[in-house]
């Protein structure tokens, strides 16, 4: 069974709105400075990056917990096989999953309420299953 932990809608909307603002600024600059359109490429690229991040975060979520691993869903996200988990603790408002080599911090501020409740249940199940 795979559990997908999602971002808060507010978190997602920030990236979407910032991306749209950057795109709008780029289009306005292209329109106002048509003879030097290449100057607005930075705004357009920045806007596209933010919209891409929004789409990626919306479709993949914050993290995925399966029976075999815990995985952060971002470009350089970490993976910890569930068999390697040494400790799961709550520290300074974040959940921390520790193995011998890696540490995953789960920031509660980014998670929507429904996903947070499912995360708590799943981490408790993992603690019981692994006798941590």
From TrEMBL:
Superkingdom of the source species: Bacteria
Chain ranges passing through the membrane: 12-31, 37-55
Protein's recorded name: PH (Pleckstrin Homology) domain-containing protein
Organism: Winogradskyella maritima
This protein's UniProt keywords: Membrane, Transmembrane, Transmembrane helix
